[in-house]
Design a protein that fits this description.
Mean pLDDT of chain A: 96
CATH topology of chain A: Hypothetical Protein Tm1070, Chain: A
Distance between the termini of chain A: 21 Å
Largest interface: A-B, 32 and 33 residues
Oligomer: homotetramer
Number of strands of chain A: 8
Number of helices of chain A: 0
Order of helices and strands of chain A: EEEEEEEE
Low-confidence stretches of chain A: none
Chain lengths: 126, 126, 126, 126
Amino acid sequence: MPEIGARVWVVPGGHVPFPSNGREPDLTSFDQLCVLNATDTDAALSLDLYYCDAEPVGPYRITVAARRIRHVRINDLIDPEAVVLDRPYGCLLRSTVPVVAQFLRQDTRLPGVVALTGTMAYPAPG
Amino acid sequence: MPEIGARVWVVPGGHVPFPSNGREPDLTSFDQLCVLNATDTDAALSLDLYYCDAEPVGPYRITVAARRIRHVRINDLIDPEAVVLDRPYGCLLRSTVPVVAQFLRQDTRLPGVVALTGTMAYPAPG
Amino acid sequence: MPEIGARVWVVPGGHVPFPSNGREPDLTSFDQLCVLNATDTDAALSLDLYYCDAEPVGPYRITVAARRIRHVRINDLIDPEAVVLDRPYGCLLRSTVPVVAQFLRQDTRLPGVVALTGTMAYPAPG
Amino acid sequence: MPEIGARVWVVPGGHVPFPSNGREPDLTSFDQLCVLNATDTDAALSLDLYYCDAEPVGPYRITVAARRIRHVRINDLIDPEAVVLDRPYGCLLRSTVPVVAQFLRQDTRLPGVVALTGTMAYPAPG
């Protein structure tokens, strides 16, 4: 299968909603990166988080196996540093092979209501 | 009319919400692919679904006639294999002619509430 | 000011929600095209609507003046033919000068709830 | 770090929802631009707002420091002119260095409900 996608992806508008209402983990508020690796080679991802008031933190290391997807909740990342809820951030994803990346937010701050938003991430050459 | 679009489209962030609340089929939770074929030739689509823990499944075969659109609910796909609800997936669409593809999710897991999210799919050369 | 944008834009996933709840027109369910013309020349737009079961309908003609935006509700279009609510469609926009186009849906089918979704439209050469 | 992004970004579909319900500022209705500057140079942003019935207003000046993000609520902009709520607009962002820009709307017009929508902005050469 041919290589499909890009090696660098950017999401400027991160912000894990806080608090959550409803059954965990289905209805927990989250920001999520969804990555598809259509190649026949495992993808080693390196994720850097950018902030408005501090130097970038990373790399967070994630593997997406060949011919697999992976949906990663940003609020589950803990190494090198747990991601603080309700703090604005952006992220830059680098991959050893071309992948495709999408961003999704689930917001359950209000009881009995779920809000969703998302967008394809921005692919950069590199 | 000139050819408009691409022959390969990717959506990494699939996940059909479960359960649903409200009248079927309008308010059923769904993931949907929306495809527009502006050419004068029928488009034969081939859809492969990618998972986090298993080899890709496909091809699902879909036709979009010349100068037509088609909105396909992922949860209605059954051949070669019914799509499991509440299971993360991604998809890769190939078309015999250039088309344009958009992704839409409707989430009615909570009674009396509808949430929507969507994005243009990612167009790849190929 | 330099020309910014493209002359052809595509949205495959149209579907005006029906019915609506709440005060008109703020809370009416709608699909909307939002167009920005950054050039110093008026843009003459020509919009064709595509369906799953009939030939395309159009052109709907819309003007966006130089250095202006215009947000057009699809459900307000009546010439050459009123757009039927709750019917899937896609659309193809052509402009005489480069513009930028975005799609937005507001869904108020359920009382007391508003859902939103949107995406940048797909820009095509042409 | 290599330069990532573009120097011009466009969002045609602005419209700050009005009114708001819920605790300020978390649940205030807003339109937001989220910008990531991955370069090692501060980015001087110049934002022009376009309207359907008046000449563009700007520039609004915003700085995004090197290796930082900034999430700017459009409804917080006051110089050269406060942005009117519930008025359609579009915006054009110029940056002295490449950045990545995303658009997000939060709509709390209805009590007890939050709706979200967003999209990556449209990157233009320039």
